[in-house]
Amino acid sequence: MEETNYKKRGALILIEGLDRTGKTTQTIALMNKLLNEKIQANLIKFPDRSTPIGKLINTYLIDKETQLSDESAHLLFSANRWELKDKIINNLQEGKIIILDRYVYSGVAYSSAKGLDFNWCLNADLGLPKPDKTIFLNLENDQDLINRKGYGEERYEVKNFQDKVKLKFTRFFNDKNWEIIKVDNKTIDQISLEIWIKIKDLINGIEKPIEFF
Ligand code: DGP
Ligand code: NA
Ligand code: NA
Questions:
Q1: Of the residues 19, 49, 59, 128, which should be mutated to test ligand 1's pocket, given the most ligand atoms within 8 Å of the CB?
Q2: At what angle do helices 23-36 and 188-199 cross, to 10 degrees?
Q3: How far is the CA of 45 from the centre of ligand 3 (A)?
Q4: Atom 21 (ligand 1): residue with closest C-alpha?
Q5: 85-93 and 70-83 helices cross at what angle (nearest 10)?
Q6: Distance, CA 95 to ligand 2 centroid (Å)?
Q7: d(CA 43, CA 30)
Q8: Rg of the chain over CA atoms, in angstroms?
Q9: 0.90 surpassed by complex ipTM
Q10: Taking the chain, what is the end-to-end CA distance rounded to the nearest angstrom?
Q11: What lines the ligand 1 site, CB under 6 Å?
């Protein structure tokens, strides 16, 4: 008989959404809750602006004068995810939970919203570990977006562009392991609780192999 007992590993949990929908607040809150529960976890935010590639990306995002073709920008964002691949896998295998603030889906949604081919964008990320759960923070009335703190400071924070990105993200809404949380008119704590309910079955580890894009 085939052996199907896998060693327990940590879960890969991703929080996605448009700019200024509260991803960073929620990933930090989730991280703190896990640590309070004495569960080992690590938070990785993409783009990771601290690496050499991440520094280039940061310049590109904050300095709207920086010229980069859409393709090369995409490949830099993708390379930035590949830089962290081994760390993610090693952490999961050590039993740690990894919380991601953006990942492959942001890559595909933002870059294809600029007109690049959807599958070309995804191809660059094929082989990266796939999240066990993706939670999309959905602002249904996104007219509110432009009133959020700091909005418009970075390259992609333009309402018309965000609408296109949203449309690309919706192509993933029915994917396996995707959950959509409506964030309109909810407090930070309410949203945190909804996230917790969706991930609490994963916090004690998973007995299946890591999946890959
Ligand atoms: P943040 O630090 O979460 O605000 O993200 C920075 C910006 O980068 C945000 O507007 C989303 C965008 N972004 C993230 N990943 C990718 C990618 O792979 N391609 C492109 N074009 N944009 C991305
Ligand atoms: Na942003
Ligand atoms: Na953010």
A1: 19
A2: 60
A3: 8
A4: 111
A5: 30
A6: 30
A7: 9
A8: 17
A9: yes
A10: 29
A11: 19, 46-47, 61, 73-74, 77, 102, 106-107, 110-111, 154, 156
Find out if CATH 3.40.50.300 is the number for domain 12-201: yes
Q: What is the whole-number distance in angstroms between the Cα of residue 180 and the centre of ligand 1?
A: 19
For residue range 132-182, list pLDDT tens digits in order: 999 999 999 877 677 777 788 899 999 899 999 999 999 999 999 999 999
Mean pLDDT score, 24-48: 97
For residue 27, give both structure tokens.
Answer: 């990933």
Tell me how long the chain is.
213
Question: In the numeric block, which tokens belong to residue 92?
Answer: 């999961």
Q: What is the pLDDT of residues 177-201, one digit of tens each?
A: 999 999 999 999 999 999 999 999 9
**Side-chain-facing half-sphere of 38: CA atoms under 13 Å:** 0
Closest CA to 15 of 5, 4, 25, 6: 25
